[in-house]
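Catalogue entry: protein
Contents: sequence, fold tokens
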Amino acid sequence: MTEKSIENILTVVDKAIGGTLESMAFSEVVPLRLATDVEVASELNVWSALDIIDPRQGTLVLVLSKQLAELITTSIYGFLEDDELSTEHYRDAINELLNIFGGQICKEIFGLDTVYNLGLPEFGQLSQRPEYESPSDDWISIDYAVDGWLLRVMLETRFAKVI
């Protein structure tokens, strides 16, 4: 991949992640490659993955801490401190965010007139998919600080080559 291609991918992903989290969860999103003075809690233990099926195949993955998943979910649903937050709540919220990210990324890459097809998101513990913890060269991995927590976005390079 060329440096220009990677730059284009970063721009597309930054826009999708930042815009969505800022508007839906009222979260501050900072790309870590642009801010060396930002401290984040770097525990990663859950993931959500989405297959992009058409017009180009690839997978988009979010890797984050359970605490960040709960923080995002609480903000989206408007839960109060006393409200009980279940695994199903944060799984559904993170999967829905990933669907939105995937749609935004496809829209930016392929344009508004292109029909794209996304699979159903999957959610799990990082221990089930250790390859998400240390991604290989088959992935573009982008780290963000979201309200002081680490969020990793991974996009398969085979999908990213279209940009």
About this structure: The chain has a mean pLDDT of 89. The helical segments are 3-24, 66-77, 87-110, 157-160. The two ends are 10 Å apart (CA to CA).
